[in-house]
Amino acid sequence: MNLNLNRDPGEEVRAADPEPETAAATEPSAVEAAPDDALTAPREPEQEPQERGALGRDGELRRHSELHRRSRIIRSDLAHILCALSTLIAMIPLVLILFYVIYQGAGALNLDFITQLPKPVGEPGGGMGNAIVGSLMLMGIAAVIGLPVGVLAGTFLAEFRSPRLSWFVRLLADILSGVPSIIVGVFVYTLLVLTFKQFSALAGGLALGILMLPTVARTTEEMLRMVPDSLREASLALGIPRWRTIISVIIKTAGGGIMTGVMLAIARIAGETAPLLFTALNSRTWPTGIDKPVASLPVQIYQYAISPFDAWHQQAWAGSLVLVLMVLILSVGSKLYFGRKMQRAR
Amino acid sequence: MALLIYELVQQALPAIRAFGAGFLISTNWDPVNNIYGALPFIFGTVVSSLLALLMAVPLSLGIAIYLSQFAPKWLRSPLGFVVELLAAIPSVVYGLWGIFVLAPFLGRTVEPFLSGHLGSIPFFAGPVYGVGLFAASVVLAIMIIPTISAISRESMLNVSRDQKEAAQALGATPWETVKMAVLPLSRPGIIGAVILGLGRALGETMAVTMLIGNSPKISASIFAPAYSIASVIASEFQEVTAGVHMAALIEMALILLVITLMLNLLARLLIQKTGGRALKSRGRS
After folding, report:
1. Domain containing A24: what range?
2. Which end of chain B is more exposed for a tag (fewer CB within 10 A), N or C?
């Protein structure tokens, strides 16, 4: 399609008119910043009079190619608008969801909600205090299980670079990250719950821990890779053994980044519901121990949401607000923190 | 990983023995009489995910192109950030929103409109409930947009500047540059992103459970309630009494696992081809 333009006989016009596209080659940011203006603005006034003056077939062709050029520009602008529009459309649900969660949740959220136990149907008040504590507890157990393994796996990937093995481990981590969380739940159920005949916080924590493994491992690996080799070599040259180098030089340097990855991983599992349904189950009392079922925010929200009671729906919204706040603070906070760190590193 | 598969196979054995290959094609799901067939669930899972893809892919590609090629520089990272926020919202919150806001809205406006105007096509025929395959797909689409757009954006950004400049030097408009240089070169990455999105949609549990209507039937209409593999596990697993019932559920988990594993493997290989490095585990259910 664009070849037509190149066959355009009006060579002198194009020579006289500095092509915006060629300008783009040397200065791409200008075109990216304002593509419409760059294409349309500088050309129009210069070309019009020349075309009028041209004679016969030459002018005919030129007018034709001018039309063609315009249609291409219009098409380009149209595509631009469509793309911008789709971005806008994707924003709508986000805004709507946040709006509803805040609007509906704020009404039901009060001090009782985060400190009280759930009340039976029909009694007003009550809260999800136990679910909030339970969620924190599950996240803690998951972190205890998932972090050491994840960080070690990541360190292995980054520091001991045996191509074949790390390719395999990396693939495994990637695949594990694609396993639906409910399947991890089923797996932990058969592994722990069936064996001990007891739903427990430990089982829930294990399921979440497995889920956070791949994230932690991959972030750790990426962060460690960013540590310059000169640091490693300097430490080794001082006669410090390799394990010592890794622990006190490399991991220390990359610590901030690893923490960010860990926070993101925790934020992700905080909202997990499916694997908890039949591992940690639920409970209406305060958590009593890691070998007993515990309540958690997501499960509580789920059960309240599918219940037929309006009061419970209100509680579900409030629970969602708390949960979303928790997740957003964790993930946005860690991203901001990390962003600042990166800038300082540069 | 191997332990995971071994354990699932082990636990699913009673069902595999009892039903054999018939499990995959039987449409009966009758816990009372201990007869189990997986077809309605496979149908619900696959159809809801494909519908979600149908809605999410064009939008996500639009976002990816906009954010990687068209958007002004100062707008790019905030917009990208906001799209990623969509991924951070827990799926149970999507489900809650779906039940109380989206499903009633669809049931009142969109679905009657579609079935009123296109009712002669079986896809759109039948009574509308709000809750059903269609509602589940819409929520799924919203949930996988961040995944698809983030990864395909990454692979579009990986297209070397030379290629784009070559197109621009030929006089291509911005859109033609995208079409000629960016899209062909990032195609494997985009396909990989779509497959990952599909994998996520297939395994998504909570939002689907809350919206799909949970009835093990296969119907032509996309407004009818259905069921998915993940959601039947979520809603029946706790109440299981018979051993075979549980084995059947676990066998379904196994089916789902195999499907998602294959898809993931394929996607990773494709993405590796474009050198996309954006692949940390993305959020899920």
Report:
1. 3-90
2. N
CATH class of residue range B2-274:
mainly alpha
Q: Which amino acid type is present at position B121?
A: I
A281 and A226 housed in the same domain: yes
A182/B65 CB distance under 8 A: no
Nearest to B203 among A96, A180, A317 (CB): A180
DSSP per position, A180-226: -HHHHHHHHIIIIIHHHT---HHHHHHHHHHHHHHHHHHHHHHHHHH
Interface check A303 vs B, CB under 8 A: no
Nearest C-alpha of chain A: how many angstroms from B58? 8
Q: Do residues A49 and A121 share a domain?
A: no
Q: Is A98 among the domain residues?
A: no
Chain A residue numbers with beta carbons less than 8 Å from the beta carbon of B92 are: 271, 273, 298, 301-302, 305, 320, 323
Does the CB of B233 have a partner CB in chain A at under 8 Å?
yes
- Which residue of A8, A183, A212, A315 to mutate against B (max B Cβ within 10 Å)? A183
pTM for the whole thing? 0.76
Is the confidence at residue A75, as pLDDT, over 80? yes
With an 8 Å Cβ cutoff, is A53 touching chain B?
no
In a domain, A193, yes or no: yes
Q: What is the mean pLDDT of chain B?
A: 77
Chain A residues inside the 8 Å CB shell of B203: 178-183
CATH number of the CATH domain containing A119: 1.10.3720.10
Q: For residue A314, what are the contacts with CB-CB under 8 A and spacing of at least 6? A: A104, A107, A108
Q: Considering its fold, how many domains does chain A have in total?
A: 2
Q: List the one residue out of A82, A58, A67 whose CA is nearest residue A10.
A: A58
Residues A165 and A42 both lie in one domain = no
C-alpha A343/C-alpha B10 separation (Å) is 51
So where are chain B's domains?
A: 2-274
Condensed to tens digits (0 to 9), the pLDDT of residues A261-316 reads 888 888 888 888 888 887 777 777 777 766 777 778 888 888 888 777 777 788 88
Residue type, B206: M
> Could you say which of A19, A187, A324 has the minimum Cβ distance to residue B93?
A324
Closest C-alpha among A252, A290, A144 to residue A208:
A144
ipTM of the complex: 0.77
Partners of A272 on chain B (C-beta within 8 Å) are 90, 285
Judged by CB atoms closer than 8 Å, whether chains meet at B261 and A215 is answered as: no
Residue A96 lies in a domain: no
What does each C-alpha distance from B149 to A217, B33, B174, B278 come to in angstroms?
23, 46, 20, 11
Residues A32 and A124 in one domain: no
